[in-house]
Amino acid sequence: TAGDIMYGGSSGTVTRLAASTDGHVLTATGAGSAPAWEESAGKILQVVTDTGPTNFSSTSTSLVQVTDSDISITPTSASSRIILHWQITPHINTTTVPGTSLVMQLQAYRGTTSLGIIDHSRVNYPASTSASFYKDQGKTLTWVDHPNTTSAVTYWLYGKVSDGTFYAHHAIYGSPKMKIMAMEVSGLTTEWSGID
Predict the structure, then answer these.
(1) pLDDT tens per residue, range 55-65
(2) What is the rounded CA–CA span in Å between residue 134 and residue 158?
(3) Which residues of 38-77 are buried (b: 16+ CB within 10 A; e: fewer)?
(4) Is the overall model pTM greater than 0.85, yes or no?
(5) Among 9, 29, 45, 119, which one is most buried in terms of CB atoms within 10 A?
(6) What is the rounded distance in angstroms from the CA atom of residue 76 to the CA atom of residue 21?
């Protein structure tokens, strides 16, 4: 049959290895063992991009969903990993007591399930400051997930702040909107469990 491979069996007889599906590679499995088809490592199967909010602000000290931070992807294989990127400029603003620290936390969610903390920012509010204080920090947040499904999945950011107001994205420095990307990758065995 077209695409089949012939190899020597353990008794010296010629054995046929049937052709595999597109994207698989022939892999040695050790001395005395038959070769096998396996998914190629680290192959990008699809990329989905989107833009998020121009500005999103909240004073909540409990986790709230960041509006328009979502991105959806439908994996082609249940074994695939999804690599997620959020390019953001988080911003903290407060008029609290000078000399204290502000903490903004962002978590990655799959649907309504928390995957873990994706960002934990601490800003020291200078003791010499008497007016409002703010801090912008441009960054890219990354997560690796294994949804174990071929159904559509949607990812979100949730956030909270210890005091004052936080922006999950602040439209400054030429970045009017949050940028979001999801990549389906085959051949990976890694998934992340969050940061401390």
Answers:
(1) 888 999 999 99
(2) 20
(3) ebeeeeebeeeeeebbebbbbeeeebbbbebbbbebebee
(4) no
(5) 119
(6) 13
